[in-house]
Design brief:
Length: 359
Amino acid sequence: MAIKSLLLSFVSIAVLFQTSQAAAVKRVACPHSTHTAINPACCSWYNVLDDIQENLLESECGENSHSALRIVFHDAIGFSRTKDFGGGADGSIIKFGDTELEFSANAGIDETAADLQPFADAHGKTYGDIINFAGAVGVANCPGAPRLQFLAGRPNATAPAPDGTVPDPFQTIPVILARMADAGFSPAEMIALLASHSIAAADEVDTTIPGTPFDSTADQFDTQIFIETQLRGTGFPGTGPHQGEVESPLVGEMRLQSDHNFARDDATSCIWQSFADNQPLMSQKFAAAMKKLAVLGQDVSKLIDCSEVIPIPKKTTVTPHFPAGKTHADIEQACATAVFPDFPTLPGPAQTVAPVPPQ
């Protein structure tokens, strides 16, 4: 009898726990919207989500989603731990666009800044918030991507970031790593951030071939960037037709000089290689580095977690592989402590990579 009573007590406790958990996640209807929210303070962001997906990002992993992610980095990295400048992720690249968009490292960002500003103004959001929200939503449109955190409530920027804070692809690895360290990022976090190049394309490195992707699957957040950059190129750093470019062995694909060097430098080559066959690790490390980037210079205690508004990305349909016509023999081994993993080769003739179409 005592055992029966004890069991009933455990059942009662379990029911109470489940009931309390359900109450904790109770959603409320958002006004003037079909959405519901766990935190009512996040309701207005659902309106921004609907607007930006329909009228800018088109709910796809296309050029505008790629650009939305790019501007997050270019805005936030204008920050220093050792010098008195930069507000970090504060939207200064929009608010003080007349200054920052003239920097050579920000070439091409002006279009994205001009696209995002009306959404911020229409919905009463700060530029720092709209940049980080659009970046998180843009990433979520790409299959295989992690669901990024989004915190709202950044105050408006009060000053522009100085020139020289955004790394350039033609700079040496020590110079880039020193700049990133000054902003608070380790070499491992730098490589994690470069997972963004799996859904990136170049417009300004060579303006005659806009939309040239950095890997063969620019519509998927996958590990191909870490595989294809390790293939032997047809040139050497600095020998591409434009500054900051190394010729890729794949027709239609662009390889940044900095990516080429990161994949081969003693300080980063093994980190680079570790992502080649490990999609979960790449996604986890990218999400952690982006979480840090998105709040540079901000007082996190004053921000509201509205991550619930960010869509849940689909799973990628791509498994790691060598492009058609390439095998493990084409890999330029760089990591001294582990052999580059082997992958199947896609069937067919040598692969030509298609450009990312404009939106």
